[in-house]
Protein: NEDD8-activating enzyme E1 catalytic subunit
Amino acid sequence: MADAEEPEKKRRRIEDLTEKMAVDGGHMDTGCEWDGRWNHVRKFLERSGPFTHPDFEPGTESLQFLLETCKILVIGAGGLGCELLKDLALSGFRLIHVVDMDTIDVSNLNRQFLFRPKDVGRPKADVAAEFVNSRIPGCEVIPHFKKIQDFDESFYRQFHIIVCGLDSIIARRWMNGMLISLLSYEDGVPDPSSIIPLIDGGTEGFKGNARVILPGMTACIDCTLELYPPQINFPMCTIASMPRLPEHCIEYARILQWPKENPFGDSGLDGDNPEHIQWVFERAQERAAEFNITGVTYRLTQGVVKRIIPAVASTNAVIAGMKHFFFSLRH
Ligand SMILES: [Zn+2]
Structure:
């Protein structure tokens, strides 16, 4: 065996380590700092490096700012949001607000790792905040189970940085517009103290992006709208008269047959209702058989109706990590 450590010594070492790592109930009490706790963050903030910004001045003030002053807002507590909250809390950000309007669905659990089966149905913001607060001593995450539109200027103005983990372009544009409206200009130049940096990012399957927007100074969300991929829609003539793909058959059932037959009364098609999906699936199968098309499955039906793009945990982790890296560039 390579492990030459005596069992007793090893046991004591593990006990010692466990004690250092113990966090339950450690929130904001005196035992929340320990020797070397921020050593890894210090390596970033107190030394220069090949990727640091030319204006970056290494020093101890940055960590002080992080721990004591910096107020950061995370928008979205989903796939990206969970990663962001974890990264921020572990690297010394202590005053974090999180806004999310969603509740936890069982299908989130594979990648939104701050949630457990018992949390299904509860607000994402609340559960994420509870989890991080109980796990990271000294960190205070304040949840808001709300829409971003429920807050006004005075709310957004209090933050030093805003990080978005959103899945909607509309929400991004709203947030972008809010930050631009917060700018105050002097002789046509934005007053630097009125600029709140927006760190935006998104993922779609294996693809993702992350970038920093300085409102009033760099290209914003609206300047770069054409960078977003268009929503995939099939031409109606293909769906109605010459389907070639299983997706065309599903769209036929969804767009044309459902409103005509209203199989469940007046209730609209609900992508989360298995009976609704089953109905669309069966109609799509009939249509596919008529045109000798294969590949219509229940799963595909669900994917097309709900416009599901598989979310990949590792992509979220990489993108959140990149956004986090931007902080160190900016410091
Ligand atoms: Zn712009």
User: Anything to note?
Assistant: Residues 219-220, 222-223 surround zinc ion (CB under 6 Å).
